[in-house]
Each structure stands twice: as structure tokens, then as C-alpha cells.
Write a structure and sequence with these properties.
CATH class of the domain at 217-336: Alpha Beta
Bound molecules: flavin-adenine dinucleotide
Oligomer: single chain
Amino acid sequence: MGPDLEEKLTSLLSPEEVVTGPEAAVLYGGDSTRVSGRPDAVVRPASAESIRLVMEYAARERVPVTPRGAGSGLSGGCVPAKGGVVVSTERLNRIIDIDTADLIAVVEPGVITASLHSASEALGFFYPPDPGSSAFCTLGGNVAENAGGLRGLKYGVTRDYVMALDIALPDGRTFTAGSRTRKNVTGYDMARLFTGSEGTLGFITKAALRLIPLPEARAGFLAAFDTLEAASGAVLMIIKSGITPSTLEIMDAVTLKAVASYLRANSPFDGRGDGGNGAPGALLLIEVDGSEADVVRQSGRLLDALKDSGAKELRQAKDTAEQEEIWAARRAALTALARISPSVILEDATVPRKEIPAMVRAIRNVAEKYCLLIGTFGHAGDGNLHPTIVTDLRVEENKNKVKAAVGEIFDAALSLGGTLSGEHGIGIMKSDYMERELGEAGVSAMRKVKDALDPQGIMNPGKIFKG
Ligand SMILES: Cc1cc2nc3c(=O)[nH]c(=O)nc-3n(C[C@H](O)[C@H](O)[C@H](O)COP(=O)(O)OP(=O)(O)OC[C@H]3O[C@@H](n4cnc5c(N)ncnc54)[C@H](O)[C@@H]3O)c2cc1C
């Protein structure tokens, strides 16, 4: 840790707001990618004013600033790639207001996503964005990554719920982007610009998020298929049947077996990783919600579509507890895969929904070509798959194979009209690939936005753009 910087920050903030000690650099240096950097100082401000003071100081002294939520990111976004100060939002964890007249929650950026779920549901309201990490990620991190999650198909992503953001700019000035009104066309849509900007344009110090009424009823289903291709074909049949499930997730045999062995007796997937006749097998996990009558109607149509698309086993969760068990097992997918090898590389390529079967085939071809074990799961209803390479990157040969495989997965997604990242962001991990999707002109247009708001390049440097 840099003693001078730490000392200066201690004089600006209260002692509890500065994290000292040799372990700070380790605890605040990485995220879920297992990539890490070394901060020169770590602070955990207790107010928006403290953040403003840090930004003002950083601008004056040209010190890099890296915002940090829970560090659950999957693209290296909160890794201090160029040192400087890591600013953690862990103490900014208050739900300031839940306004049941305007249906808005006003929160500090360090509120854990699941806390807003339970606080709004207790009042009969609903905050739909539901990343698999909702038990530990923060709302600030969700806004900065424009996080998606398990309910994206019907309810959209974080962006669809952001109304206003209080921003501390890289020069220490502050303003509110957007407003708490349903309508607002005053100038550029700055709330949208900051949403998904990965902490590279400014610091989010407060957010006003839209709520909706809590659906009256829901029903959960598991459908087993002989192959991943068959399951991905069923996704299209479900959508063509005219219903919009709130959740439509897919898991392949590799992932199912990893989860079953991780959760053991608590796995709802036991024995469902085998498709019979030597086929690998796959599962769809589906939830429909709405009024009681609508859930009955949607469930009927869903079951018809699943039968028509060749599901070999259908099961409806008998109650809410069983539904929760299914979703808990789905959320365990990454942890379960990570447990079986020293390295996991989880990708996020997303394609138009009708191309999911083609994307699934492309991933399988890449796995075969490079002799790599790839577990595939994800938000199939959004066309958002998470092919997860399970390997050992300490072996040099594996590094080269993984690099080539990841490049080919991205190329396949782009050639199918897709995108590099559906929800995890670019961060450090995908900056090399940006031009493949956007071209030189596209990247340079984004760079101009960055340079206009952060001319000194101190705001989360080394992210999104190469170098
Ligand atoms: C098991 C698991 C499951 C996951 N499932 C999903 C999923 O379903 N959908 C999904 O979208 N993601 C998922 N993720 C990824 C991750 O949880 C999300 O990207 C989440 O939004 C990150 O939140 P965080 O608080 O951990 O942010 P961090 O990882 O700490 O930071 C993420 C980015 O946000 C920036 N940032 C954080 N706070 C602020 C702020 N206040 N102001 C400005 N910038 C800020 C950081 O600089 C960084 O660039 C998953 C991760 C794990 C480990």
C-alpha cells in the first residue's frame, strides 16, 4: 500500500473510512474472474460527500480511482488495473426510501440486491432484476454492469429499472442523471449512459430504481431433454407458443453433474445429466408468473410446447419451497463448475434467440476441436449462454488453447448476429475483442465519450478499452 496516498486519504476522511493493513490490497484487489491488481490505497466511504472528496483529490493528483461493489464481477471490472485508490461501497448500504406511490426505491450503491428484493416484496412490490449473484452483489455494481439475470426474458435488465442516478464525476463535481418522473426528455439520457459504463465515467453514489407490483402467483417447471440441441430447440417452441416465461434457463450435462455432485442430497437434478442412449442430456428450468388465472393458462401452453418439442421428462415444482430449491441449484452452477478444476473461464456471448441451437453447436465444436471441457448454462430465453471452460491455466498449453477457443466462441456469436457480452461487461477480460464487434469507428466513438467525461483518464483505467 502506498503510505503517502493512505496518509492523504486519512486526512480527508474519517479513520474508519480508510482500510489499512497488508491484507487490504489482497481483499480489495480482485473479483470473481480471479484476476487481480494491487491498489495503493483502499477506502470505504460512509457518505456521498466522502466519495466527492476522494474524486476531487484524485483529479487534483491524477490518482486512478476504481469503484468496487461486492467484487462479484466476471470481467475484472473492479480490479485496480493501474493501482491508485479502490473505493468500496460496502458502508453505503442503506435503502433510503421505498416510495409506494411513485413505485420507486431509492438506494445507496452498496445495498445487496437481494435486500431490495425482500424489502420491496414485504410491501407487495417487485424489483425484477435478479442476477445469479443477487445474494451478495450490490445494486451499484448491477447498475454499473447493467446486470441481467434469471428474470430477463419477461422483465428485462437493470437498465429497464434505472430512473435516476446521483453521479460524482471524475473531477469531483456532482449531478443527478435522469429523474424520478415517469417521463423525462430533458437533454441526453445520461442515466442510460452511466448504466453499464462499468465505473469508467463516474461514481454512482445513489440510485432511484423503478418497482412494479408483485405478481400474484408463479409456477416452476423442470424439463429434461436428450441433448442440449433439443433443449435449445424447445426454447424457441416455448416462445413461439405465445407465452413469456419470467425465467427460461438451460443447463447442459456437464453443469448438471457438477451441481449434483456439489449439492449432493440437496440437488433437484439428481440423475438428470444423462440423456439415455449415450446422449448427454440437458435441462430447461422454467418459471411463469402473473395472476392465478394467467399462471394456469401459461402453464398449460408451456406443457404443450414442451411435449411437442420432445421433452422426455416434465416436472412441476409442488410448492414454493421446491421452486426455490431449483433456483438455488441453478445459482450454484458457476460455483459447482469452479470446484472441479483450478481454473474456470466463464463467457457471456449472446445471440439472437433463434440462433441458440446454432450457438450451442458452435460451442460443442470448439470444445471438440481444442479437447476442452466446457459446461454450458445460462439465460436461454435471452439468447445469453455462459459456456464455461473448466481447465488448469497453470499448464502453458492450456493457456493457448483457451485463448484460441474463447476467440472462436466470440467469432461464432458475432457471425450469428450476437454480441461479446450480454451482461457481464467488457472490463479487462474482453477489451481485446471490442473492435471485432464495433469496428475501429465504433470503439473510437466510445473512446471520445470517455475522454470527454474523464479527460485525465483516472476513472477505472484499463477497462473496456485496450491498454
Ligand atoms: C455466481 C455468480 C453469478 C452471477 N450471475 C450473474 C447474472 O445472472 N447476471 C449478471 O448480469 N451478472 C452475474 N454475475 C456477475 C456479477 O455478480 C454482476 O456483474 C454484478 O452486477 C456485479 O456487482 P458487484 O457489486 O459485485 O460489482 P463489482 O464486481 O464490485 O464491480 C463491477 C463493476 O461495477 C463498477 N462499480 C461498482 N460499484 C460502482 C459504483 N457505485 N459506481 C460506479 N461503478 C461501480 C466497478 O468498478 C466494476 O467495473 C454473477 C457472478 C457470480 C459470481
